[in-house]
Amino acid sequence: MRYTEVKFLKASEFKRLTGVAPATFATMVSELTRLKEEHRKHPTRGRPPKILIEDSLLMLLMYYREYRTFFHISKQYGISEMQCWRIVTQTEQLLLQSPIFHLPGKKSLHKTENNFEVIVVDVSEHPIERPKKNSEKITPVKRNDILKKAK
After folding, report:
1. Strand, helix or coil at 115?
2. Spatial contact of 59 and 84, defined as CB atoms under 8 Å apart
3. Burial 36-74 (b: 16+ CB within 10 A, else e)
4. Distance CA 125, CA 66 (A)
5. CA 17/CA 58 separation, integer angstroms
6. Whole-structure pTM value
7. How far apart are CA 93 and CA 68, in angstroms?
8. Residues 6 or more apart from 77 whose CB is under 8 A from it?
9. Best label site of 20, 69, 82, 129, fewest CB within 10 Å?
């Protein structure tokens, strides 16, 4: 499914499909556009890309949200599996470079003043006490019942 088909969905349906709100998607697209322009060596040279920035972001979200393989995504967009992997990886790296979408590391979480309360619950397995199947009291009674019914 390409972005041209997805952009006309309602906001709730768009979020169900992609995992992000349309406003967040638009922010991601503008940030990707800005970062791609910064990283280009020659802005006026080269062939225009076959896949739009919106579609590359949609490919990334499909990969993360639906756990689709690169093979399935590539067949949907008409590109090779390796090219699909390159687009998703490049889009992911560009979003990580953005200060808006980069999450803080583990060290910054330890430095915060948030105190977390942890409750530990013991849920280990315990054996259930049941009578032995081959006990002397049960087995002969069953055999006697079988013999009585057979006669």
Report:
1. coil
2. yes
3. beeeeeeeeeeeeeebebbbbbbbbbbbeeeeeebeebb
4. 34
5. 10
6. 0.66
7. 19
8. 2, 51, 55, 59, 84
9. 129
pLDDT, tens only, 93-119: 999 888 887 777 777 767 767 676 778
Q: What's the pLDDT tens digit per position in 14-44?
A: 898 888 899 999 999 999 999 888 888 787 7
SS3 62: helix
Report how far residue 4's alpha carbon sits from residue 51's, in angstroms, rounded to the nearest whole number. 12
For the chain, first and last CA: distance in Å? 73
Any idea which residue has 């949609």 for tokens? 58
51: left (phi over 0), alpha (psi -120 to 50) or beta: beta
Q: Which of the 8 DSSP states describes residue 41?
A: S
d(CA 85, CA 76): 14
Amino acid occupying residue 85? W
Write the single-letter amino acid at 5.
E
